[in-house]
Amino acid sequence: MCAVTIFGISLAYFMVLLDTTVLAVAEPDLAASLHASTAGLQWATTAYTVVFAAALLSAGAVADRFGAHRVFRAGVAVFALASLLSAVAPAIEVLVGLRAVLGAAAAACVPASMAMIARIRPEPAARARAVAVWAAVSGAAVAAGPVAGGLLVDLAGWRAVFLVNLPIAAFALVATKHIRCPSTDREVDWRAHLAVGLALAAATDALIAAGASDWLHAAVAATVAAVLGRKIKDLDPILLRANGVRPTLAVGAAVNFALNGCLFVLPLVFARHLHLDAATTGLAFLPLTLPFALNPPLTARLVARFGPRTPILLGLALLTTGGTTLGATVHLGSYGPIVFGLLCTGLGVSFVLPALVTALLDAAPPGSAGTAGGILNAVRQTGATLGVAVMGALGFGTALALCGAVCAVTGLWFLRRTAPTATPQQPGPATTP
């Protein structure tokens, strides 16, 4: 029964991650069906990641406060309902609103799922095995997303990509119905969480407006973001002041900037320059996405032997190489040279992200696993949002090269601001894109 429960928890995260990638290959069909502009496509993608990131800041604290099992099941149920409504959305504006609801529901699932695994597998060795299953199953979502999305779009149009969530959500709810997690008396600073969430939305709006050369709109939105963003220091001062936490969080943002930016730009490249259909585009992403499902066990062994710092730096080096390669080869009109860049990028992500969770939880105070997980996933989704907004405003080659530059700069900061740690006795928890 416990194995089924862990699989159900993993499938919920699978569903959440699937929605970050499955829509990518549907962009051309979605644009034609709903007459959406590039800005509309950006918001259809970023509405999910903006709200996901903003709500994650609160969701981790809420899971600690009210019980992870309650928050998890509520998130899964709302996700299923919003997916059903998205499948029948009549206009791009309606779809953007529903994607925002999906982002909030997704945020309820992720930190709670980490806390639930820690609850049912408290022993380090058993927890590591459970997290390996969680990482592999959820990592498969990133690998499956473009492929499944492409097949579904070619078979039944973009609306079909949302219907696949319904059976997954049903299984997750049934498999986890017996779990009970304790609540705590930790207070949640709702005003700070709301202010930071609105700041993120305003910053995304500013970037998209700048990409459309609407400079007045961009300036107003950027000012709002700067004013509200000052509240970030109030979210969890103890955690944010801990040694090495800020560069670790910056790495999470940089990796998702590169990953989600690539997932937004490359389908457009494949359609316009290589003339690939949706299903072929999904298959073309496999060198990027397969390492997410296959590499977590190797990363866990590296963390166990060398600590989290080594795989993080290795992954950032690969991401730098991958982004630089993609930027240089994307205009050649041939898929072959792109494969190396895709593979380096996928391997880089699969080395960095599992190790980041160990690095952050090592610094988190007791009783704050949900909060730490929420903050890490929030900054990752912030990076994802910025990646789509910034790279969508640039030329393809420049945008992809920027991925490599961002990862290189962040890697240098992480290298300077963190020190090698003692070799852990057990592999730490892992996560996926």
UniProtKB/TrEMBL annotation:
Subcellular location: Cell membrane
Membrane-spanning intervals of the chain: 40-59, 71-92, 98-118, 130-152, 158-176, 188-209, 244-270, 282-300, 312-332, 338-361, 382-415
Keyword Protein biosynthesis: no
Record membrane topology: Multi-pass membrane protein
Entry keyword annotation includes Iron-sulfur: no
UniProtKB keywords: Membrane, Transmembrane, Transmembrane helix, Transport
Cited InterPro entries: MFS, MFS_dom, MFS_trans_sf
Gene Ontology cellular component annotations, sorted alphabetically: plasma membrane
GO molecular function: transmembrane transporter activity
SUPFAM superfamilies assigned: MFS general substrate transporter
Signal peptide positions on this chain: none
Domain Major facilitator superfamily (MFS) profile: 5-422
Full protein name: DHA2 family methylenomycin A resistance protein-like MFS transporter
Organism: Saccharothrix variisporea
Taxonomic lineage from the root: Bacteria, Bacillati, Actinomycetota, Actinomycetes, Pseudonocardiales
